[in-house]
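Q: Could you fold this chain for me?
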Amino acid sequence: MVASPGVAVGEACQLRRLEPEVRETGADINTETAALERARAAVRARLERAAHAPAAAGHEAAREIAAAHLELLEDPELLSGAHSLLSQGKSAGFAWRSPLRAAADTLRQLPDPRLRERADDLTDLESQVLLALAGGAGTGGPALPAHAIVIAQELLPSQLVALDASRIAGIALAAGGATSHVAIIAAAKGIPTLVALGPSVLAVPDGTPVVLDAGRGLLEIAPAPERLARARAAVAALAASRVGELAAAQHECRTADGIRIEVLANIGSLAEVDAAVKNGAEGCGLLRTEFLFLDRQSPPSEAEQSAAYAAIAAALGSRPLTIRTLDAGGDKPIAYLPLPPEENPALGLRGVRTGLAYPQLLRTQLRAVLALGERSRCRLLLPMITDTSDLLAVRAVLDEVRRELGGADIKVGVMIETPASALLAESLAEAADFLSIGTNDLTQYTLAMDRGHPQLAARLDALHPAVLRLIARTAAAARARGRHCAVCGGLASEPLAAPLLVGLGVNELSAVPAVIPRLKARIGAVAMAECREIARQALQADSAAAVRELLVRELARTGVIP
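A: Sure. Below is the predicted structure, expressed as structure tokens.
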């Protein structure tokens, strides 16, 4: 599975996590308590330095993760569990490790892959404190060879941040997910990364020549010399083109024959805006507002939300801002919402359904957005809409709030994330101001594969012809009614897929900031007729693999580096 796009050539470097030995019985409570506090203080100081690191490539994501780890370090439940074990005569390491592992195990049982991946944060913090207890500084990683393809079962965020990024050509993980913190950091640093490759990758000997192609989702072990030479030439050509692409990305995006395609950024916090703008984002096509609602004991107030949205709008300048309402529910439990447990949360109370079930939560968020007073360049995006009744119900609340606050109306769009909404795109386009396709959920619902399932992750490909046909249908419905059609899911961040999406009728892509220059370059190198021909052939393919082969072949033929 592709976590961060690109091509890399190098030598395999197996990275194994250090596991400090932890004894169960401690010396005495005072000695063990003091040892734990010293270790936590050392980790706290290191995390505070990371959280306030200067702005640089990849640092925005690393700073946010460090800040999240700082909060976990002071979590009262975790500390209470540790102190309880210390009082029972356990060692500092055992007392720290036990509650963190229990919490991580609980998270790993949850159905939402993003929450499961947050267990990695607990594992990371456990490791950092245990290493500090064992006397390790924890500030540097192992020495890497030049052009290392780092291979591991999984990587912790602190491990990746500690490695010398200048020596990492690519990352290949046996496990992990495309939305994990490590994947986010790798994408921000522009490191090509593949995840969920399976345990066989752990048997690759150190020093083995490797080609990592995160465009096609392939890891080639000990390829023939001529293949290595071709791959090195491709990497060199990509590196040479990046400077020009970044400069060109500051201009609006058009196909080779002048058709306007907007390229925006997916943003999860204020810290990510700077990188988005520097990479040429023409605005924010998806603001994930969950950062304001998760990991707290009470909902954010209207004032807190409005201040956060205003800060992001100010950082974007005159660029548009698309604010998605809270996308949470049974699959993303929130401490202050009494949501009942569900057997299948992916099919239960989530997305806009949660907002309608708890209207005060929705009303407060709508008030915060409308209070911005910048409605001309702000849009609302509603997640998990399945038919017009969901949209009309939210519009009724929005109209009430608008009457209370006064002022102009705001454009409202819907996310197309289910086969139902794609099949009803005609009526949704009639009622909404724009459509935005979330390919991650659309793919898992169309293919009936949990996107967090470790054995199915590699097969969950948004380039599956069935998914592409739903995208094409949605784009056609939007075009027939004069509506904008965007893709804000993971497929929009795959440069290989950009001409295909344009050919399917999509006129806006919203992607992770690091890939925006490459996206614009891909689109600018092909004419609309070529994009439509690629789309025509892709819709006739019988598998995602066949579509990927088609894209590589067609882009190579048109002179674009795959």
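A (continued): The chain has three domains: 2-16+140-221, 29-133, 248-557.
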